[in-house]
Design goal:
alpha+beta, Beta-lactamase, two-stranded antiparallel ribbon
């Protein structure tokens, strides 16, 4: 693993980009960590945390996968996805919203889940899972100067 780490670092250092990397050998559990504590804007990786929180709330009986939510026009955002193209007040089940977020990386679906799940609930679950260098701050594609979601490798 030491030799692999040297090769990875040499390759990554040749770019102009800031990077972070964690590689774990699943057989012997050895790990390579490079810049693992550097914070990056979270972007679509947060969708995995939303998925976990949604299924967590379903397992606790707080939400139901068949529960219906309506798509309001003012929540549609650009970027990935198809919900931005659908009619106002389109009824969607929680499962539909989760599926669109994961399968087509739908940003509008993600923002709907931000409201449905609650930012504080998502962040609390991350903390309980010891994912302490990740924070959900705002919806996708909604710029608030100085406010951003972040994560580390």
């Amino acid at each position: 693993m030491i030799e692999l780490k040297k090769k990875l670092k040499l390759f990554l250092d040749s770019s102009d980009y800031e990077y972070a990397l964690i590689v774990k050998n699943v057989q012997d559990k050895t790990t390579i960590c490079i810049n693992q504590d550097i914070r990056f804007h979270a972007a679509s990786i947060i969708k995995l945390y939303y998925l976990y929180e949604a299924l967590h709330q379903v397992s606790k009986g707080i939400l139901n996968l068949d529960q219906i939510f309506k798509l309001p026009d003012n929540e549609k955002v650009d970027g990935s996805g198809v919900l931005k193209l659908l009619h106002n007040d389109t009824p969607l089940t929680l499962l539909d919203i989760i599926t669109l977020m994961i399968v087509v990386s739908d940003n509008t679906a993600t923002n709907m889940l931000f409201d449905i799940l609650g930012k504080d609930n998502i962040n609390s679950t991350l903390h309980q899972l010891n994912i302490n260098n990740t924070y959900i701050a705002r919806k996708l594609m909604r710029v608030i100067p100085g406010v951003y979601s972040y994560t580390t490798a």
